[in-house]
Amino acid sequence: MTSDLVQQATGGRGIESVTFKTISQGVATTVWAGFRAPAEEVGGRYCEDCHVAAITKDPTLRAGVRTNAIDPTRADALWTKSEEVVGERFSL
């Protein structure tokens, strides 16, 4: 992979060594969540590497889901902003 593509993929964060998943590795979690995992375990949750991701506050970790991503107040604000941007209101 060229350095330009690495810069693009990492958002220019200066990560020297980036390892990308193969296609099979990339799809494994989707297949696991859709066909193998119990629905009550994965429904509405962020999954990674064939498991429900742990919640973390550590911004330096590349794994897990951040607390701000599951904050209902932020979700409501994002929904409101999205409606504003597209110029429509959607009922839940």
Description:
This protein has one domain. It is built from four helices and four strands; from the N terminus they run H-H-H-E-E-E-E-H. The chain has helices at residues 3-9, 23-36, 39-42, 72-86, and strands at residues 47-48, 51-52, 55-56, 65-66. It has a two-stranded antiparallel sheet. The chain has a two-stranded parallel sheet with strand order 3-4. A hairpin with a 2-residue loop joins strand 1 and strand 2 (51-52).
Offer a concise description of the structure.
Helices cover 43% and strands 9% of the residues.
Strand order of the largest sheet: 1-2
Kindly, what is the distance between the CA atoms of the first and last residues, rounded to a whole number of angstroms?
Answer: 43 Å
Into which percentage range does the β-strand content fall? 5-15%
Largest sheet, if any?
2 strands, antiparallel
**Low-confidence residue ranges:** none
One letter per element, helices H and strands E, the order comes to HHHEEEEH
Number of strand segments: 4
- Measured on Cα atoms, how large is the radius of gyration? 17 Å
Mean pLDDT: 85
